[in-house]
């Protein structure tokens, strides 16, 4: 388990991180969200002891330091592959840095390459690979030693939907094996799909920290998706509707003043008739991000 306790980082008089506290349990995933410059990468650098800081970072009850380096898998925002190395040489290099032997790496690497659909690229030089395939090699290099603490800075950057799903599968497999995982992302759908907890950073402050469902529920079920033959003008005449967004033909997203008005609006729109869709839900994580970040 990773415990961040009163972590503060200043650059001169500027607070990059101000009294940050949270935990990442074993077999769980925490998603870090926030605008560029909110403090996410700085937090990663502090956890990894790449920056000095005030406060404490505990791993399984002890201060996290150099002795834990082989338990950590880190994917930096700025990728660091050696262009003249082959895929096999590159992953062996990083694996050896993490204490693995070449023989065992040569057994494990084909399994990882096959999982990411780049087995045929084993002998190719890094510089000949597409950006997406280079990203896969970097990810394999991060995970090859089966770390217990995984830190991924924008891991989905540069991946198409198919390859993003391959990465999600690998992250979830690591979770099932007991890893504590943190990753940052600007795609709220990725965060909502696989994270157990979410931490929203704003200007170095931890503004929100909880499960995805509890964060969403805290904003109330003030969003309604409805299919109706009523026109926008007719919908505007219904009390307590603040905003109307047309999604498609005869389908709308309504923002209401308070979730308590949902039943009244349902009764008005249906007027005793069947309608295909009437879903009342809390705002999406993306909508909360837009409001709070």
Automatic annotation (TrEMBL):
Residues 2-228 form the ABC transporter domain. InterPro entries: AAA+_ATPase, ABC_transporter-like_ATP-bd, ABC_transporter-like_CS, ABC_Transporter_VariousFunc, DrrA1/2-like_C, P-loop_NTPase. The keyword Coiled coil does not apply. SUPFAM superfamilies: P-loop containing nucleoside triphosphate hydrolases. GO terms for molecular function: ATP binding; ATP hydrolysis activity. Keywords: ATP-binding, Nucleotide-binding, Transport. SMART domains: AAA. PANTHER family: ABC TRANSPORTER ATP-BINDING PROTEIN ALBC-RELATED. This is Fe(3+)-transporting ATPase.
């Amino acid at each position: 388990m990773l415990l961040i306790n009163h972590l503060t980082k200043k650059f001169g008089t500027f607070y990059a991180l101000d009294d940050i506290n949270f935990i990442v349990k074993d077999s769980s995933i925490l998603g870090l969200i926030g605008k560029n410059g909110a403090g996410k990468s700085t937090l990663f650098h502090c956890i990894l002891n790449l920056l000095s800081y005030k406060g404490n970072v505990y791993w399984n009850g002890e201060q996290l330091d150099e002795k834990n380096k082989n338990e950590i898998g880190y994917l930096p925002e700025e990728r660091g592959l050696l262009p003249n190395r082959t895929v096999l040489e590159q992953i062996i290099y990083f694996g050896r840095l993490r204490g693995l032997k070449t023989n065992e790496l040569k057994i494990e690497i084909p399994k990882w390459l096959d999982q990411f659909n780049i087995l045929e690229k084993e002998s190719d030089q890094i510089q000949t690979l597409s950006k997406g395939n280079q990203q896969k090699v970097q990810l394999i290099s991060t995970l090859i030693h089966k770390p217990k603490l995984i830190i991924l800075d924008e891991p989905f950057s540069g991946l198409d939907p198919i390859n993003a799903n391959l990465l999600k599968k690998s992250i979830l497999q690591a979770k099932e094996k007991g890893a504590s995982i943190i990753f940052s992302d600007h795609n709220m759908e990725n965060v909502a799909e696989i994270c157990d907890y979410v931490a929203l950073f704003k200007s170095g402050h931890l503004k929100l920290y909880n499960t995805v469902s509890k964060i969403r529920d805290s904003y109330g079920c003030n969003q309604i998706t409805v299919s109706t033959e009523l026109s926008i003008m007719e919908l505007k005449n219904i009390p307590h509707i603040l905003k109307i967004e047309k999604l498609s033909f005869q389908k709308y997203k309504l923002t209401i003043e308070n979730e308590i008005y949902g039943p009244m609006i349902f009764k008005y729109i249906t007027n005793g008739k069947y309608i295909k869709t009437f879903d009342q839900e809390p705002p999406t994580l993306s909508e909360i991000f837009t409001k709070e970040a």
